């Protein structure tokens, strides 16, 4: 596999130490090695504080590693780029703009004429099943709809890589399940590279080609678990014994650390 192609990511020996003012420094990540193939769907799980969000911010270029290097599409990551789009847990939509203008925002910011940007935004809204909501305002949408708008907004700039930081964490359990199936449907259309952070092991296994399990602080790659279930996947997969076995395996890798993070040793 050629990781220097668009969408490929190489994380090589990456460490990140925070130096907060007037507090002890925090080694959040240490010696992380990871390669992601173009078009691959990778999920990252780990106990609270294992450095999942930090890893994602490094991949985006929002922060710079203390040690090691990161390349995306063969180029060193030195800062945020339109080639990579982030989706966060909270939706960050502008309440004063309509849904379509929220989705068009990144394109307009990049210099595109508003009419053209709205056209592209409308196409993206169709993809996420929200064409009818284009003229509504964010407050008129449910949480699940808002996160779909968020995904449409990330896709509108046509990035090579989508970085998602617990995008469904604020949703109720049923909406969350449906949203993960929706995300796979949207992803399968053009198979962008995805790195998806979650606390839910079953969500990770349902979505991913591989699940990266981080160990507790300092976070490092404990194991990379391949998930070979055929695609397209539907939610009934989650009720199969094979699925349960993969979930159990990952849970066994992090259970001690989750207990430790709760002071339960
Ligand atoms: N800006 C910062 N300054 C100092 N320490 C930080 C900073 N950001 C994160 N940390 C610390 O780095 C470690 C990793 O944090 P991070 O948020 O990446 O973990 P996480 O796995 O995403 O956690 P969670 O699952 O709880 O969201 C934690 O100990 C956290 O307190």
From TrEMBL:
The keyword Cell division does not apply. GO terms for molecular function: ATP binding; ATP hydrolysis activity. The keyword Repressor does not apply. Pfam families: ABC_tran. PROSITE patterns: ABC_TRANSPORTER_1 (PS00211), ABC_TRANSPORTER_2 (PS50893). It comes from the Bacteria. Keywords: ATP-binding, Nucleotide-binding, Transport. Residues 11-237 form the ABC transporter domain. PANTHER family: ALIPHATIC SULFONATES IMPORT ATP-BINDING PROTEIN SSUB, TAURINE IMPORT ATP-BINDING PROTEIN-RELATED. This is NitT/TauT family transport system ATP-binding protein. The lineage of its organism: Bacteria, Bacillati, Actinomycetota, Actinomycetes, Glycomycetales.
